[in-house]
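step=encode ok
step=design start
structure_in=
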């Protein structure tokens, strides 16, 4: 009896099998995520150690590359909407692979420059936004609606697993072989991802589009128009953009506070943010059974509200073991709530968006989130200089407490649209 109960609980937690094609897509996603985390921090290290870049150049590499990449991705959304998504996914993987491989090649030839690093970061950022938008549309044609939450839970769990495993392995590799090698490993991961997506197979017809229609400048705003016109997507859009931006804006200030004034060592700083990632893995595994029992709407409200209460606790950060445990506790609670919230929110977004608008909608969403993060990071950098890191972190935490007001406040039902006919995936 106990074994049967255990088996039923495992089935509820892990969900049903989603087939060979999803298995290949999942493996491709996991491979590229691991490669990304293996190379985490490699670009700044190359800029500092090899090119002797200063703080301003390193900051520009971190923010300008992403911002310009987001701008480049804007016209790609409408273009990708009417292309076969599987081909787009493979093309974006190969583009990221090729761009990253230019770095070890230039390093070996002794011609690596800061401009090249910046251009590669732009290509990778634009391809990343386009890939994530196209993957949402591809997933919706690959699986029936009732399996979307299961798929998003598996992606979220994989992302947090890569977060736990990747940075320590990448740090060891950088210490032994240097950051250029980890960039090459990241490039290979995208090549393997493209091969995995190719292995999904199946027939995907070209999306219907009037052959005489040409993309107009106004079409670039289609994704934003659809989001802002939808009464349930609109508050979720503003909530996630503001929440992510405020959380990420305090990261540099927290590093300054911990590694500077409070005297934490680099390994303690790394531990403070690596160990809590286990909360994301646990939270993502709990998302499906919680949503099944209480409903997606309630889980979005509760987990989205709970994740906002943790960051303000960082204002009480002090030195020593107590301070380290405080950061770990705050991050663990925050990441656990995000692990529950993220797959439910991603599923809800797919369910609310018609298939022929997914790429434009997800692209607009991602561009806005990245631009908001870049802007708020710059603003909080100024506030940290004027008010001090601790006060600026506290201000961000106080503003985060208001973000649940932007969450959905009433019940909703997914938009209905015709199910894809057999063979369309």
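sequence_out=
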């Amino acid at each position: 009896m106990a074994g049967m109960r255990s088996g039923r609980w495992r089935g509820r937690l892990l969900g049903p099998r989603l087939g060979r094609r999803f298995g290949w897509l999942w493996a491709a996603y996991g491979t590229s995520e691991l490669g990304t985390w293996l190379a985490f921090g490699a670009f700044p290290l190359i800029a500092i150690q090899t090119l002797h870049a200063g703080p301003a150049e390193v900051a520009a590499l971190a923010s300008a590359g992403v911002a310009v990449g987001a701008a480049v991705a804007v016209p790609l959304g409408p273009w990708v909407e009417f292309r076969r998504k599987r081909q787009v996914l493979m093309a974006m993987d190969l583009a990221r692979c090729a761009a990253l491989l230019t770095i070890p090649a230039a390093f070996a030839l002794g011609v690596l420059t800061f401009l090249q690093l910046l251009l590669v970061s732009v290509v990778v950022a634009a391809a990343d936004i386009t890939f994530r938008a196209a993957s949402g549309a591809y997933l919706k044609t690959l699986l029936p609606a009732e399996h979307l939450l299961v798929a998003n839970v598996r992606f979220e769990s994989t992302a947090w697993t890569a977060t736990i495993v990747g940075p320590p392995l990448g740090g060891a590799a950088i210490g032994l072989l240097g950051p250029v090698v980890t960039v090459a490993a990241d490039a290979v991961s995208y090549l393997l991802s493209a091969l995995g997506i190719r292995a999904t197979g199946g027939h995907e017809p070209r999306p219907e589009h009037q052959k005489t229609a040409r993309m107009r400048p106004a079409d670039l705003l289609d994704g934003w128009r659809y989001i802002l016109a939808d009464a349930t997507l609109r508050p979720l859009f503003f909530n996630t953009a503001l929440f992510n931006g405020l959380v990420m804006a305090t990261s540099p200030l927290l590093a300054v506070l911990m590694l500077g004034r409070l005297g934490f060592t680099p390994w303690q700083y790394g531990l403070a943010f690596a160990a809590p990632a286990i909360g994301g893995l646990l939270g993502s595994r709990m998302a499906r059974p919680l949503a099944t029992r209480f409903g997606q709407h309630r889980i979005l409200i509760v987990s989205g509200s709970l994740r906002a209460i943790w960051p303000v606790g960082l204002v009480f950060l002090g030195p020593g073991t107590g301070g380290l445990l405080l950061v770990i506790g705050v991050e663990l609670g925050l990441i656990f709530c995000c692990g529950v919230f993220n797959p439910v929110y991603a599923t809800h977004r797919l369910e609310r968006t018609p298939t022929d608008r997914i790429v434009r909608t997800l692209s607009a969403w991602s561009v806005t989130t990245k631009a908001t993060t870049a802007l708020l990071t710059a603003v909080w950098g100024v506030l940290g200089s004027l008010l001090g890191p601790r006060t600026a972190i506290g201000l961000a935490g106080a503003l985060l407490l208001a973000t649940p007001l932007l969450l959905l406040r009433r019940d909703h039902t997914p938009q209905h649209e015709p199910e894809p006919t057999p063979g369309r995936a």
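step=design ok
step=annotate ok -> Residues 416-425 have pLDDT under 50 and may be disordered.
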